[in-house]
Specification:
Layout (H helix, E strand, L loop, with lengths): L22 E2 L2 E3 L2 E3 L6 E5 L6 E6 L3 H17 L7 H17 L1 H12 L3 H24 L3 E3 L6 E9 L2 E5 L5 H6 L2 H7 L2 E5 L6 H13 L6 E3 L4 H10 L5 E5 L2 H11 L5 E5 L5 E4 L5 H13 L11 E5 L3 H12 L20 H16 L3 E4 L15 E4 L6 H4 L6 E7 L2 H9 L3 E2 L1 E5 L3 H10 L4 E4 L14 E2 L2 E2 L4 H6 L2 E9 L13
Parallel strand pairs: 1-5, 8-9, 8-11, 9-10, 11-12, 13-14, 13-19, 14-17, 16-17, 19-20
Antiparallel strand pairs: 2-3, 4-5, 6-7, 7-23, 12-22, 15-16, 18-21
Helix pairs in contact: 1-8, 2-4, 2-7, 3-4, 4-6, 10-11
This protein binds nicotinamide-adenine-dinucleotide.
Length: 511
């Protein structure tokens, strides 16, 4: 049964400060704003209103080589790596302040390029700034270990050192937020970086570059190239002078990063896809759960690695819960990303829209009941879809297993906790999951056995800077945020200090 729930088309919301022609951006290499060596450029069309909003330098391998050389030189000079943490922290704190001061400008560009709604883009500015603040604190408290238990003639220091030059590659769904989960952590550790944002959302990473220079970051410490994955991105993965790859994006490209890293055995840190479960037991607070299910499934138009795309609910409360979810979902506003009232904005590009609609159509063909959502929203411009709720999904169907990356919720049921666990853990991904229950023992035992890097109990999607975030299985390798997030960008060095007479190896017959 379909409910025609939303306005027949998207109303346009014009802002006085919209650019009248595309802004032209350059890349940041060795502290200077520079075009690509080839002079080639590419543009970004806003998925919300079809305007061309940005024109970018199109980096090739040679541009990446220049950026890596600058980062290498800045790292090897040692002035950043050995700068007192107090001074490095001051630059990170200043960057956080500048993000807050420029939040409206950056949020507008995020909404225009990614299609996310402006209210959410604005909230992500504070979240991002907070990560820079956090890293300033961690930079000053990062330390190793000392060992005084090694015998009379030996003490040792285990020091954390910055790993070196890092290639940072980011996706389009949370442009400023995801670079803020990587770059300040790398900088806090003392690393230098070459950064490539997604070709769909390059603007705000370049603005961050401006802010970093304003905050006093030395030339060459952060270099930003713009361009495409299979050229500029691939060179960043392959380059021999790069020590580490920090990648967020699809699992397929993550696997390419691992393969490329084998050439020079770079460290690889990966934040990849997800097909996250919200497991609801019959004793849960269904009112709270219903709200979180909507947020988890539809926030950022479902274009989120943390999208709570699978609702696994105890059969006895399925109808009651689903009724509440549908009731709320009918009120979710799909709209122009610039409309302050909109809750679901535009889809990033035509291919992604086709993918989402294709999954819903496929589920219909498989006999799934579409409780809500009718595919594409008619509009004079832009790319919009209705949020969809799919009832009666079988655990073996594509919509139960594949990452759709759109506002599509698949509902499955269970009779026993074992069955719920088996459905939740059948995914090849393991990024996050939620458990809803009022029984503490169920919460503890269930969260211990769920295979995911983040488990929420009776909530969804919170992410304080202090807490590590990352995936099990094909959702990734390594962790971001928290102390672990800075430690990812370090090597351990063991230094042993011997004193007193040393036993002669040869003369004493020791072997
Ligand atoms: P994507 O993998 O297509 O692209 C991500 C980045 O990789 C882009 O900058 C792109 O230019 C670059 N790239 C593409 N091919 C490359 C190559 N051959 N070599 C080097 N770089 C290359 O992903 P996307 O479509 O931008 O983002 C969506 C995906 O990201 C989803 O799967 C989502 O789950 C995942 N994601 C994960 C997290 C997380 O924290 N786990 C967060 C956000 C997004």
């Amino acid at each position: 049964m379909n409910f025609p729930i939303h306005p027949a088309s998207i109303s346009r919301f014009m802002r006085a400060d919209l650019p009248t022609r595309p802004h032209q951006y350059k890349m940041l290499v060795d502290g200077k704003w520079t075009p690509s060596l080839s002079g080639e450029t590419f543009t970004r069309q806003s998925p919300g209103n079809d305007m061309i909003v940005g024109e970018y330098a199109k980096a090739g391998a040679a541009d990446v080589d220049l950026a890596v050389t600058a980062a290498r030189k800045a790292f090897d000079a040692g002035s950043w790596a050995y700068m007192a943490a107090e001074d490095r922290a001051r630059i990170l704190t200043r960057t956080a302040e500048l993000i807050r001061q420029n939040a409206d400008r950056i949020a507008l560009l995020e909404a225009l390029e990614s299609g996310k709604v402006i209210s959410q883009a604005r909230a992500e500015m504070d979240w991002s700034a907070n990560l820079w603040d956090y890293c300033a604190a961690v930079a000053r408290t990062l330390h190793g270990d000392s060992h005084n238990n090694l015998g009379a003639n030996l003490i040792a220091n285990v020091m954390r050192e910055p790993i070196g030059v890092v290639s940072i590659i980011t996706p389009w769904n949370f442009p400023l937020l995801i670079i803020s989960q990587k770059l300040p952590f790398a900088l806090a550790a003392g690393c230098t970086a070459v950064v490539k944002p997604s070709e769909f959302t390059s603007a705000t990473t370049l603005i961050l570059g401006e802010l970093l220079l304003e905050a006093g970051l030395p030339a060459g410490v952060v270099n930003i190239v713009t361009g495409f994955g299979n050229t500029a991105g691939q060179r960043m993965l392959d380059h021999a002078a790069v020590d580490m790859i920090s990648f967020t994006g699809s699992t397929n490209v993550g696997k390419l990063a691992v393969r490329a890293s084998a050439g020079t055995l770079k460290k690889v840190s990966l934040e990849l896809g997800g097909k996250n479960a919200q497991v609801v037991f019959a004793d849960a607070n269904l009112e709270e759960a219903a709200d979180a299910i909507i947020e988890g499934a539809f926030k950022n138009a479902g274009e989120s690695c943390n999208c709570g795309a699978r609702l696994i609910v105890e059969r006895s409360v399925r109808d009651e819960l689903v009724e509440r979810v549908v009731e709320r979902a009918r009120q979710v506003q799909v709209g122009d990303p610039l409309d302050p009232a909109a809750q679901i904005g535009a889809i990033i590009n035509q291919a992604q829209l086709d993918k989402i609609v294709g999954f819903v159509d496929g589920a219909k063909r498989d006999g799934v009941e579409v409780l809500l959502g009718e595919g594409r929203v008619p509009s004079d411009a832009g790319l919009f879809v209705y949020p969809s709720i799919l009832m009666g999904v079988d655990r073996h169907m594509p919509v139960a297993n594949d990452e759709i990356f759109g506002p599509v919720l698949s509902v499955m049921t269970f009779e026993t906790a074992e069955e719920a666990l088996s459905i939740a853990n059948q995914s090849e991904y393991g990024l996050s999951a939620a458990v809803w229950t009022s029984d503490y023992e169920t919460a503890i035992t269930f969260s211990r056995r769920l295979q995911a890097g983040t488990i929420w109990v009776n909530t969804y999607s919170s992410g304080p800077a202090e807490l590590p975030f990352g995936g099990y299985k094909q959702s990734g390798i390594g962790r971001e945020n928290g102390r672990a997030g800075v430690e990812e960008f370090t090597e351990l060095k063991t230094v042993q200090f011997h004193f007193g007479g040393r036993q002669n190896w040869w003369a004493n017959g020791r072997r």
